[in-house]
Structure formats: structure tokens, C-alpha cells
Amino acid sequence: MTNPQQTPRTVAIRLIFEYEGDSVRLVFQQPVDTVISGFNTVAGTGSGNYVVETRDDRGQRLDRVPARGAFLESAEVFPENHTEPIIRVDVMEARGAFTVIVPASAETTQVAVVRVAPPGGEALQDVDLATFRLER
Asked: What are the φ and ψ backbone dihedral angles of 21, each rounded to 5 degrees?
């Protein structure tokens, strides 16, 4: 008998991306055995400014995961004197890295980093910044 309290595990992949401006590179991918939440199915639109989509061989979206902390346009600056506060300053060009864990069903063959159009912007569309094939 299965325990009704247990959350079913989903096959997942940890992805690490680096970015500079709108240029994105997939630098690491690793299968993980974990419970994942906070992703939307095909019917969802995602939340936040950027998402990572899983797609099948035809390029059809399967799932969408928010890319939290991606493409930050500011940076924390730590003072030399530890009694002074840490401050956040704007940067000229977004540069950094972010990590997401995406669900990876058997039909998942690729991922795309997508800039999501703001809600209500009928003339605006989501923009694919980069698409990568997964290693399986």
C-alpha cells in the first residue's frame, strides 16, 4: 500500500545557465531525483520575466519553470567596513548565472530560455533567447 502523504517524484534535470546581456549558454546539466513544484503545465503562462521551457522534438512546449534570479540588472556591493550596509547598484549589462530544475518526461528533448511578455501586452510576444538540446 502506498503512503498518501508521499509526493510523487518526477524525473528532473538541474540546468545551470550563464548569461551576458541577452546571450545565454547552457553550461551544466544533471539528472536529479527530487520533488519539484512551482512549474506550470502547457496551459500556464509562467510567472516572472523569464522562464525555462521544456520542449519535445517538434519544439512544442511541455512545461514552464520560472527562472528566478535570471538576468539581474543590479548587483550587491559589499562594503570594506563590515558595519556598513550591503547596497545594490545598477549594472550596465546583465551578467551572471542562474540555476533551474525542470521536469523531464520521456518526451523532453530540449529546453528554451524565454523572455515572457508582460500581461496585457497584446502586441508583445514571448521571445526565445536560446534553445538547447538535452543530453540523455
From this structure: 65, -130
User: In this structure, is residue 45 part of a structural domain?
Assistant: yes
The count of structural domains within the chain is 1
Tell me, rounded to whole angstroms, the distance of Cα 113 from its chain centroid: 7
CATH number at residue 47: 2.60.40
The Cα 59–Cα 67 span in angstroms is 19
- Hey, which of 2-6, 39-43, 82-86, 108-112 has the most confident mean pLDDT? 108-112
- Statement: residue 5 has pLDDT above 70: no
Global confidence as pTM: 0.76
Q: Provide the β-strand partners of residue 113.
A: 52, 130
The rounded distance, in Å, linking the Cα atoms of 125 and 92 is: 25
Residue 39 near residue 47 (C-beta atoms within 8 A): no
> What mean pLDDT do residues 24-48 have?
72
